[in-house]
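Hi W., the magnesium ion complex you wanted:
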Amino acid sequence: MLLDLIAARRVVFVGGKGGTGKTSIAAALALGRAGAGARVLLVSTDPAHNLGHLWDRPVGDAPVRLAAPGAPRGRAGAAGYVDGLEIDPEHTVEQHLSAVAATMRRLLPERMHAPAARHLELARQAPGTHESAVLERIAEAVELGAEAYDLVVFDTAPSGHTLRLLTLPEQLTSWTETLLANRDRSERFGAAVRGLGGGAETDRDAELRRMLVRRRNRFSRLREAVTDREQTGFVVVLTAEPLPVAETVEVYGKLTGLGVDVAALVANRRSPADAGELLARRRRQEDGHLVRLRRQIPDVPLLDVPLLPGDLVGAEALARLAGRLGASSPGDSG
Ligand SMILES: Nc1ncnc2c1ncn2[C@@H]1O[C@H](COP(=O)(O)OP(=O)(O)O)[C@@H](O)[C@H]1O
Ligand SMILES: [Mg+2]
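Structure:
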């Protein structure tokens, strides 16, 4: 069952097409693991946040306690809990840019302040700024998870966006690499132009260089963590319909290509076979789609989660959903 499949992981990404149930499944997984005694950090990276709505309490840019199911029976001392956090990209970009601006003002001579400020203003609008800010926060959450939690569950944005993020560490690393190379050139250039080249200039260069190296190291650590198949797994949520199935196959191919382990596929909101003819017919149609999915992805566990009655809001409803992260699909071989 899904909870067992991820029990040994430290980082789980929950992804898939929009509206299939990523946020609900991510929250239920977090709650399920917390119920087994794990300290869980649940992180939303979807700009359309809804952790707060789902847990019926305000969730923001810093972790807040969402649930503390307590110690499981027979395991005294291990009291699990779920903390939640919604990454706010705008806020992150602002914070990041103002930190960089402060460093630039400190490090650059006065006459460079205006061009530097213009440069930063452009950077705010540049493609990739947003993503790299989110990625930096994802890296931070993985680091925080390694220190203070047993598991980090990411409720991600719809598939395409997340895949772009997961490929970014490499792009950003080489981008940092390029900057470092430019820096190397300009250090020599600067030293030549300055002639006497005061000691202070050299210190500034060294500090800029350290900043870039820190960033590079952080992204390469993230890349290592994400592709560590023992520690990190991706759960793809879908509904048993043509488009989500097609997207799942595509996402699976891309993740596998990136070296990311797909731990499980979750067919969510499965129609019941025994609740009238309409739903029974839907059920048969869904079975057909899942059999096709199975043919294309034969060896990843495929799990069913039934369509539940009522609104999925609040810890009690989520606990009910967590209790259903068990049954395996008829299309599933293992
Ligand atoms: N197993 C389920 N049974 C019934 N409703 C569900 C189930 N899973 C999700 N939902 C509902 O489906 C809608 C979309 O779920 P959500 O988790 O927000 O999807 P996503 O995060 O992928 O956009 C929500 O209204 C949610 O309550
Ligand atoms: Mg969502």
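Residues 2-89+230-323 form a domain with the Rossmann fold fold (CATH 3.40.50.300).

W.
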